[in-house]
């Protein structure tokens, strides 16, 4: 199977997590961010992740891919219960996380941004939706302080390093990709429980963090 993705894409990380956790072999293919043709041909729109199965058929939508691989790999199926506190936490982080990660992800040598035209494509597209990247960088401290405070709120919700609700579950699939992206941000005060959690899920899913190239 082949998985088409971008390294900075949290939805792609959801898909990567189930392959890593269930030890299902897959070829990861990182598209350039301005490559519209490949995804358009596969699923009729410019969006990743895309799974191309062994029979050649293509599947979009991260959670569909997660469920497909979860069933295919056998073993215990992911518990899909998500606590309202986790849903609420994600909703709050969603209000500012992109302001921190979008302007940084283009500068940390990710494969989808290997060319200037891929970077320009991304900056133009995302600026139209989220606002000026430079302004967000200038406002970083405000967002970092919000995140620091939210990490303190998150800490007591972590029941185990193996999975936030005790075992690996849908909560991890939804939460870890956001936290992993935020490891590219310099100056975040990670609490010990959150740090242990992301390091452990990174190991379990074989998805490296960005903490060695923070900006
Ligand atoms: N609902 C989709 C969302 C996927 C998504 O938004 N992917 C983004 C990358 S993070 C994308 O491909 N956007 C098109 C673009 O950036 O041009 C899923 O869960 O798979």
From TrEMBL:
Domain GST N-terminal: from-to ranges: 1-77
Question: What InterPro entries does the database record attribute to this sequence?
Answer: GLR_AS, Glutaredoxin2_C, Glutathione-S-Trfase_C_sf, Glutathione_S-Trfase, Glutathione_S-Trfase_N, Grx2, Thioredoxin-like_sf
Instruction: Determine the domain of life of the protein's source.
Output: Bacteria
What does the entry list under GO cellular component? Answer: cytosol
- Return the Pfam families for the record: Glutaredoxin2_C (PF04399), GST_N_3 (PF13417)
Q: What is the protein name for this chain?
A: Glutaredoxin, GrxB family
């Amino acid at each position: 199977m082949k998985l088409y993705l971008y390294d900075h894409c949290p939805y792609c990380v959801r898909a990567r997590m189930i392959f890593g956790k269930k030890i299902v072999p897959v070829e990861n293919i990182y598209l350039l961010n301005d490559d519209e043709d490949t995804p358009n041909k596969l699923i009729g729109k410019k969006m990743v992740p895309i799974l191309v199965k062994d029979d050649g058929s293509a599947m979009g939508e991260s959670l569909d891919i997660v469920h497909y691989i979860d069933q295919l790999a056998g073993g215990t199926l992911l518990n899909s219960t998500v606590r309202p506190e986790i849903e609420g936490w994600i909703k709050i982080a969603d209000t500012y996380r992109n302001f921190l990660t979008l302007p940084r992800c283009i500068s940390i040598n990710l494969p989808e941004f290997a060319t200037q035209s891929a970077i320009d494509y991304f900056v133009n597209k995302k600026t139209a939706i989220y606002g000026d990247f430079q302004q967000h960088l200038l406002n970083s401290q405000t967002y970092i302080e919000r995140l620091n405070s939210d990490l303190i709120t998150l800490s007591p919700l972590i029941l185990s390093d193996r999975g936030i609700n005790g075992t690996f579950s849908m909560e991890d699939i939804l939460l870890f990709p956001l936290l992993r992206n935020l490891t590219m941000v310099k100056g975040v005060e990670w609490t010990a429980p959150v740090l242990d959690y992301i390091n452990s899920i990174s190991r379990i899913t074989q998805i490296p963090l960005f903490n060695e190239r923070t900006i």
